[in-house]
Amino acid sequence: MGIFAADRAFLGEIGGLDGGMSVYGGENVELGIRVWLCGGSVEVVPCSRIAHIERAHKPYAPDLNLSMRRNALRVADIWLDEYKKNVLIAWNLPLQGHGIDTGDVSERRKLREKLKCKPFSWYIDNVYPSLERLDNILGYGVLQNTLFKKYCADQGVVPGSIPVLYECHFQQPQLCYYTTDSEIIIGGIKSHNYNNNRCL
């Protein structure tokens, strides 16, 4: 984790950092969600002075995508309840049988029960009401041209986001979401509710 300051006693009471996280990524999100759900709060203190010293050599692999995805799924397994599917959708993974081992989460679930933490729906309603719930997504993936398979639907240049055909790279600008309203949303999912102008 980069930079944060915490009350040592409170951090200990709520279980410290999750030792089951892999390498790097997601521990800040996990801790923030846990603090809110288990009786604390996260505050931004604009006048604070904190330094972050980077290591000259980083002992982990240059591509952190795999560990970040695994850690995000671990957080979802423990804390997100019925909203776990949102993480799978955001990482473009199947809802069943994604094949990623998130490790043993039983101790963290016991901790959640012991601390009498609130459900994630409380977090959405009280802490982050602008968070997109994604309750209406039926399917997701990439839309690939059947005649010219090297081209995929792409969100196009931002701002404007007028969908275009672009050479397939299968990254976030080309992820598509089919909704219960029979709309196709092209491009990465945002964390805030907003007027979506990327619908077909």
Automatic annotation (TrEMBL):
Which Pfam families would you find in this protein's record?
A: Glyco_transf_7C (PF02709)
**Which residues belong to any copy of the Galactosyltransferase C-terminal domain?**
2-54
Q: Does the keyword Ion transport apply?
A: no
* Biological process, per Gene Ontology: protein O-linked glycosylation
The record ties this protein, via InterPro entries, to: Galactosyl_T_C, Nucleotide-diphossugar_trans, Ricin_B-like_lectins
Q: So which residues are the signal peptide here?
A: none
* GO molecular function annotations of the record: polypeptide N-acetylgalactosaminyltransferase activity
Classify the source by domain of life.
Answer: Eukaryota
> What does the UniProt keyword field contain?
Disulfide bond, Transferase
One GO cellular component term noted in the UniProt record for this chain? Golgi apparatus
The protein in question is named: UDP-N-acetyl-alpha-D-galactosamine:polypeptide N-acetylgalactosaminyltransferase 8 (GalNAc-T8)
Organism equals Nothobranchius kadleci
